[in-house]
Structures are given as C-alpha cells and as structure tokens.
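agent> fetching stored inputs for the zinc ion docking request
agent> found them:
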Amino acid sequence: MNNPLYQKNIISISDLSREELELILTTAQSLKHNPQPELLKDKIIASCFFEASTRTRLSFATAVQRLGGTVIGFDNAGNTSLAQKGETLADSVKIIASYADAFFMRHPQEGAARLAAEFTNIPVINGGDGSNQHPTQTLLDLFTIYETQNRLDNLNIAFVGDLKYGRTVHSLAQALSLFNCNFYFISPEALAMPDYILEELNEKGINYSVHASIEEVVDSLDVLYMTRVQKERFDETEYQHIKSAFLLNADMLENVRENLKVLHPLPRVDEININVDSTPYAYYFQQAQNGIYARQALLALLLTNHFQDQA
Amino acid sequence: MQHKLQVEAIQHGSVIDHIPVQQGVKIIRFFNLTQTDEKITIGLNLATHTGQQKDLIKVENTFISDEQANQLALFAPRATINQIKNFKVVHKFQVQLPDSFIGVLACPNSNCISHHEPVDTRFYVKKKSTLKLKCHYCEKTFDHSFFRELD
Ligand SMILES: [Zn+2]
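agent> prediction call returned; pasting tokens
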C-alpha cells in the first residue's frame, strides 16, 4: 500500500487530514514497541536551527539516530557563516537540501518552513516557525493522548494557562477539532483563547466552555493540558489569585477520573507542583519522551514508501 | 455627450471603469501600471450618469485578462473592464473577488518570512463579507484594511 505521506512536507498541523494524523500516531506506537534501528541507515537528515531550541534539537537528533540515520546541520544559525554572509533563506535551503534526504528546521520568522519547502524537493519538517506552527510538538501531544486514552474521539480535554499566546494549545485544539472532543478553556481573562480559534471551533461545531478555575471541571476530565502563565504579565496580587486558580497541586486530584492524564509541553515553572509528579496522573515526562517516537514516525513515513507494510 | 468629452476614446486597449474615487491612483501604483511605454489615461473624480463620482483608467494596446482584473477587486470591487478593438467594445466584464491575491500586497506581519525572500506574497480570501485575507506563509489572517502595497 502506498503511504500518503511519502516525500510530503510537514509544515502546519492544519495541512494534515484525520487519516494522516492517525497514520502518524499508529506508526509512532509501532516504533515505540518495535524499534527499527536500521530503517534510515543510508539516509542523511539536515537539522537546521536558525534559532536555538535545545529540547527540540536533542529530541529530533535522537529520533534520527534511533532509526539509524545520520544528522548534519547546526544548532544556532547566529554562530554560522549563513547569518554573517546575509544569504537568503531560500539559497541556504537549496544548498543544504542538496546534501540531504530530509530537512528539519527551526526558524524565528513565521512562514519560514513553508517558504523552505518551495525551494527544495526533499521533505521539509517544520520544527517551529516563529509564533506560527510547531507541528511535531502537536503530534507528540496527540500521540500521548492517543497512547494514554486509546482514542482521540469524545474526550474531555481542559487547556489551562496562557491560551492567548501559546501556539502549542492553539495547534493542539485545531488538530483535536478533527475528533469530536469537548474542550474546557481555563485561563486568566487577559490570556483567553483568541477569537479566531473560537470561530474555527464554532464553524466545526465543537463543544467548548470557558472556566475560571481548574477545580470547576477537573473531576470530569480525561486530559488536563497545563501551560505556563508568565508571572511577568501580572502584578503580585493578581498573580496570587492566578496561582490558586491556574496552578495544579496534588490535593486537587482527589476525585478525578482514573484515566486522567496531566500533560505539559515543558519546561514547567510553578504551574504544576512537584507533589503531582508522584501521582498516577502525571504524564508530562513520558510526553516529552514521546516526542522521539512522534518524530521517528514522521521520518519513517516521509522517507520510506512502504513503512507500514514492514512494521 | 458630456460624458464622452471627459475622456477621449481609445482605438485598442482596456478601460477600467467604475473605480471608486481615491482608488484610481492606488491601483496604478499597486499594479505597476506605469511600467509600460503604452499610453495611459487616468480620469479622477469623473461624474457618472447617476450624479456620483468615479475614477477611470485607460491603457492602450494592452488587454487585461480576467485573472489580472480580479486582483483589482481589493480596491474596486465593482470595477468593469472594457476591452476595445477598433474603437469598439469587444468584451466587457465585471471584476470578481479572486480566491487569492498574488504578488501585489505586503504582509502586515513584520515578522513574516515573505518580506526578505525572493518570493511572491500570496493571500487567500477567507471571508468575503468583511474581506479577510490569510497569508500563505505566516498563516495569519488580516482584515483587508491592514494591507499596503509592496515596496
Ligand atoms: Zn505573512
């Protein structure tokens, strides 16, 4: 069977259909249980960070090496001759892509990955373009939800924290809107989910509600997705209130559903108390590890046409 | 009779009519209509037969295609194009809002990659009622009033 993602670009989560998302998630699961250390043994993957991001870079490089591939590239373009010589991104991509079989990139400007894909024939994977998209983060979030709940449909999912500026929650809500979930948005008023996301959810007929604290809904949740609220955005009194409403500690989890999982894109600061770590609901460290399987799944599908037949 | 005297007729070419006032010069600038040796006539604040005002542009020996004309819809949603051969109107059509605008608008997002790279900008028409455009590159959506021409 031909694989619909073979030689495709992964730029924006909204480019992917429900079927394609499901294929990536089942592939990630298969790779987690059946490692394929030789799958990419003759492949070279360019990993180009035009801005630094240590976690994403380590996770991606690990994914390539676990599949037997080789990584070339750079960690921070500021230290390279590319930045100093003022070459256009289009030219840099054309040259680097001519050495490699796939191109993974992070860039501080929105639209950089879409543009890069127009200047090369090898698959481009967006590792984050400014405030726009970070599809491999969304895929690891989806994979973690799928892995822990055995499905993506009909889940009760709360998003907590900075819902205004957090591209992670925007992309995840957009992706999950292909599955029939109920969303609960819990944030300080000043950091509420933007209207354009709510409009999209309305158009798709997705159920959502807005709440003032975690405790209002926590007992009926399957997934509690926490994000960071930046202290700098508030004065001290406001922040004390925010702390009680939007920060999670183990006491709040006494009557929750057994299958509840608490997720967080990390790094956390104080929005999840460390006393949550030892509860059966904490899953954020496994979530970070799942980034390796989600990225392996993408590489496997983009670079091998018949991967699912072998797996 | 009065109307005919306002702008002299052309033998071959295109007439862009029913442009809202203030938009004629903008259209010339946006679409680089001056980058040609052909004769161009611009009429500003002309009277229409209903007593209102309009702008009008004539370009000789140039036939504007439907696709090109539709790019004008951002500024002149009701403009009509008359193609003229031997002083006769051989084809007349109204501009239609296209599905996308390519290469004429600058992205209002200053951190968009399209600003400093060798590519045409591209915007998809998202909502026709209150005209919103989504950038192909940065994926942000803007109200049409945010746009300015490319430098
Ligand atoms: Zn843009």
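agent> quick read of the result: Residues 24-30 of chain B form the longest helix (7 residues).
agent> awaiting further instructions
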